[in-house]
Design brief:
Structural class: alpha+beta
Helix content: 40-55%
Distance between the termini: 44 Å
Strand content: 5-15%
Strand order of the largest sheet: 2-1-3-4
Number of strands: 4
């Protein structure tokens, strides 16, 4: 089955990482894949635009079915391979409701992170449009968001996943954002519950197998978020 799949992806991209974790959890190792350089703008190449007119990564194809949105690909994989690998959508209504809630809150978390860590990149905010007041406002919004997630994990207790005792799609799609905040220097002392969650999941086989290769090559991250 995995031989009928191809994933076009970029290293360190949380949306790409989501799909890679889902593939690992569903025991779909051995899928075809191609790594694109985001820095070289390879995701704007004709090869990719022919499949994904938005020119974005990831792009996932299973047979004739193309999914260019990471959440859509993760839902698709769980739906099509329900009885294979890890069950990623719990049956219990309370845990399922919390899973869906945290999944979609994860999009806000990711957005609030991006407007801070990429603020000084020309492709994100052109130099002439940058303002210290905007960056300050973005950082304050990110702090508020981080405190929300810290509180969610505090309420669930040590050793919990985002929707309760089971690893679910919420973890598949939100962990890559958590991994990125620590890659960019977030203090685990200041956010101990997020730090605990990060340490729990980074040892999970699916996460280790899909860890961004350039992070492995350069384990020392950045300090963009050290004062957040």
């Amino acid at each position: 089955m995995a031989k009928d799949m191809i994933l076009l992806w970029g290293s360190g991209s949380p949306p790409c990482w989501r799909v890679m974790i889902a593939l690992e959890e569903k025991n779909l190792q051995g899928y075809n894949q191609k790594l694109f350089s985001l820095e070289k703008l390879e995701h704007k190449s004709k090869e990719l635009l022919d499949i994904n007119p938005r020119g974005q990564l990831p792009t996932f194809k299973h047979g004739d079915n193309v999914l260019n949105e990471s959440y859509a690909a993760c839902f698709y994989l769980e739906s099509q391979f329900k009885s294979q690998g890890t069950k990623l959508i719990p049956d219990g209504p309370a845990e399922q409701a919390l899973m869906y809630q945290r999944m979609f809150e994860g999009l806000t978390f990711y957005e609030k992170l991006n407007v801070v860590i990429y603020y000084f990149f020309d492709w994100f905010v052109p130099e002439g449009e940058r303002h210290e007041s905007a960056l300050k406002r973005n950082k304050e919004a990110l702090v508020t968001e981080l405190r929300l997630w810290e509180g969610y994990l505090q309420k669930l207790g040590s050793g919990s996943y985002l929707a309760g005792p089971s690893f679910t799609l919420a973890d598949v799609v939100v962990f890559p954002t958590v991994g990125t905040v620590f890659r960019f220097g977030l203090s685990p002392e200041r956010y101990p519950k997020l730090g605990e969650y990060y340490n729990l999941l980074k040892e999970r086989p699916s996460v280790k197998a899909s860890w961004p290769p350039h992070w492995l090559e350069s384990p020392k991250g950045l300090d963009t978020l050290k004062d957040i």
